[in-house]
Amino acid sequence: MRLNRLLSVAPMMERTDRHCRYFFRLLTKETLLYSEMISADAIINGDREKLLSFSHQEHPIALQVGGNDPKILAEATSIGVDWGYDEINLNVGCPSPRVKSGKFGASLMKEKELVATCVEAMTKCASEIPVTIKCRIGVDDQNPEVILPQFIKIVSEAGAKIFVIHARKAILNGLSPKENRKIPPINYNLVNKVRESFPNIPICINGEIRDLETVLGFIEKGFAGCMIGRQAYKDPKVLLGADEKIFGSVHTHQKASNGRRLRDALRKMLGYLEWHVSVGGKSSSVLRHLSNSVSGMPGAKNFRATLSDGMACRTSGPKLLSGAISCVDFAE
Is 94 a catalytic residue? Predict the structure, then answer.
């Protein structure tokens, strides 16, 4: 599958699991979706059915892996390919203490030669799908104007096909992961300058992108695409209209208003919930991803309260969601 990555939704821990992605896919057929970051060790030694399974409707979908051992990453890549993912992405951007202590994630910005070795090993196991990188512009006291071009050069030569760059530094000593999403200043100009230096390498941009108009602006500048992160989770309605505005695709459902399309997507989640509960799943595993779906709409408060009050009941999913949907005025 040739991926059109004009728009993607970022990998987000404890958010972009298969249930969240299934809902997002009901809002946009074209946008590239990412798994949560999964460590290469877990992919090899853990419960693969739980960690890697996804619905065929979720395509196009990328698997993001974390790690720093070329052999282990290569094996995890091979497993991801066999599982049916459309892309394997190496995390070189997460600033959490756990990945720092394991010397992967953003800390790998300091180990560009190791990253190159990892990518070379991964690409040998992913001949038919791209191995890509998600990174920062630098970490700690690094000079992004120096380190980022060096990083892209050596890692692309090793086989990385696309770079998704979060346009801010990661401060590993002194800032929490939450602070690392806000405090280091965003630097779109630097990423654009670096993009111009590598005209033959597709570069996507990430960081504080909140609407489709901004996405279009970056694409017009020459970026291969944009990645939206927490805004898509806080207000999934941002994905409505992406197929038409960003990808130029027109699907039958797009003839309806955004309110009606959102309502229809939520109604389709009733069948998904029924299936999930029937195979022993907790309704809360799905419903928690829907709480923000109607933000800003009349009845949103009652929608969230209805879900919150009944979510603990393991089997109440479809009936509970149906009641919550009835609280909302979807007219525009």
Answer: yes
